[in-house]
Amino acid sequence: MDLSTCQSYCTENNYGLSGLQNGDTCFCGNGLQSFSALEKAPAAAKDSKCNAPCSGNSTEICGAKAYLSVWNATEAVKIPPTMVKQVGFYPLQGCYNSTVTGTKTSPLLAATSTNVPTSLTAESCVGFCATRGYAVAGMEDGKTCSCEEKLSAAAEVLELEECNVQCVANKREFCGAFGKTLVYVMDSASVDQDGKPKSFGQKNEASVKANSTAS
Questions:
Q1: Predicted TM-score of the model (pTM)
Q2: What confidence tens digit (pLDDT) does each residue in 62-98 have?
C-alpha cells in the first residue's frame, strides 16, 4: 500500500477523500464523520502522530494505528453525488415519505429536528441525533435533520432514487428531497469486531441524477 494506490482506488470508486491507516489500510469517503478530530500541528513533522511508513513505499507516511492520513481530491476529480452508505453505527435504511398516514397524519421523525441550511450533511445529521440518544436520523430537502427513537411500522418506503436533493454543505451527498426523508438507523451489528462498517469496500456509484435545487 502507498499513497497513489489508495488515492486511485478511492477516486475510481467515486470517493473524493482517501485515508491511510497503520501503513497498510486504505479508507475512502466523501465526508468526514461528525466526531472526526484534526491533529494539532506538531512542532516538527517527526512528532506527528501519523508516523507509520507505507508498506509499499517506506518513504511515504500512511497514518498510524489509530490515525488516518487523509487526502482530499474532491476539487481535482469530478465526483458525482452519492448516497452515503453508513455513518458510524448508522447504516442507510432507505428513502421514506416524510409523513406517516394512520388515524392521523404525523411527521415520520417527530422526536426532534433542526433546520441547518448551511451545514447539513449525512455525517452532521447522524451526529446530531446520536449525541441526543436517538436511533433514527433522517435528512429532508437538503437542509433539515430530524430524529426519532424508532422508525414507524407504517412508514412508507419510496424508491431510493427519489431522495435526490444534494446536502447544502456537501454537494457530493444526497440529503432526502421535498417531502421525502433519507433515513439512517442505528445497528450495532453493522460494523465488524474492529469497528469497520461492513459496507466498506463496496462501490459507491451514483445511481440517481442530482436535483441540486431544494424546494
A1: 0.66
A2: 999 889 999 988 776 666 788 888 888 899 999 999 9
Distance between CA atoms of residues 67 and 203, nearest Å: 24
Instruction: Please return the burial class of 156, using the count of CB atoms within 10 Å of its CB with bins 0-12, 13-18 and 19+.
Output: middle
Asked if 200 and 27 touch (Cβ cutoff 8 Å), the reply is: yes
**Angle at Cα 71 formed by Cα 120 and Cα 25, nearest 5°?**
105
CA angle 150, 181, 147 (to 5 degrees): 40
- Distance, in Å, from the CA atom of 62 to the CA atom of 57, rounded to the nearest integer, reads 9
Q: Give Cα separations from 73 to 5, 149, 201 (angstroms).
A: 14, 37, 19
8: enclosing H helix or E strand: helix 3-12
Amino acid in the structure at residue 81: P
Residue 115's φ and ψ, nearest 5 degrees, are -100, 115
Measure the CA–CA gap between 73 and 36, rounded to whole angstroms: 18
